[in-house]
Structures are given as C-alpha cells and as structure tokens.
Amino acid sequence: MVLSCWAKGYQDPLYLVSNMATAEDACRFYAKRFCIETFFSDQKSRGFHIHKSHMSDVQRLSRLLIAACLAYIWIVYLGSVCEKDQWRPIIHRKKRCDLSLFQLGLRFLEHLLNEEMLIPVQFHVTI
Predict the structure, then answer these.
(1) CA nearest to 102, candidates 62, 46, 64
(2) Residue 109: its pLDDT value, please?
(3) Nearest-angstrom CA–CA distance, 77 and 52
(4) Helix (H, G, I), strand (E, B), or coil: what is residue 16?
(5) pTM for this one?
(6) CA separation for the pair 96, 78 (Å, rounded)
(7) pLDDT score of 50
(8) pLDDT, mean of residues 1-18
(9) 123 Cα distance to chain centroid
(10) Would you call 4 helix, strand, or coil by DSSP?
(11) What is the pLDDT of residues 47-64, one digit of tens each?
C-alpha cells in the first residue's frame, strides 16, 4: 500500500509505503515512529551513546541494551520527579520547557551529583 498525505501548512506531502491492511492502521503506526525515534536518540547521540560501544557479540550487546533500558526508565523517573517536585526552574528554564523527561532527568541527576545531594531511586523488582 502506498499512501500520500498532504497536511495543511506543509509544503510537501508525506509518502508512506506499508504492508498494513488499512490506511488508518498505517497512519496510526507511523505516528508512533516519533516516540520510538526519540527513544533511539536518547539511547544513542543525545543520551547514553550506545553506538560508540562498537559491540558485535550478541550476548554482550543484549546485556548492554537491557542495562541501558533500565537506566532509561530510571532517568525518565528522575525527570518526572524533577517536574513533580518543581526542580525544573532550577536546572532549566522557568517559563517553558523544551526538554523530554529523559533530558530533564539527566540534567536533574547531574545537578544532584554536583551538589552532592541524595539521588531518588525507586525500583522494585519482583520475580
């Protein structure tokens, strides 16, 4: 299936090629792309820089990705604590925020480390 969408305010159309059953399904899944791309950039260039590990062993890479995903969840948690407890004006802008929860969490963690403050940890593992 080939789709073309030309939204108001855009100079060029968006083209999608999909194997989905309907155009609605294809558009719905494409909309998730932006969340996924944000996650990838947080794991790579704007966050953990996993791409610089140059690992090729599948088992080692798998363990690294599991650790990175757990760390990602924790950093997003710190970002939400930053918002909830009103830390953002101290570590970022006062009037508006253009950072993801992950980026806020990284800055919050850096601030806590620099100020030698306690770092909130909230993990509960049940097996």
Answers:
(1) 46
(2) 95
(3) 25
(4) strand
(5) 0.67
(6) 18
(7) 85
(8) 86
(9) 19
(10) strand
(11) 888 888 888 899 999 999
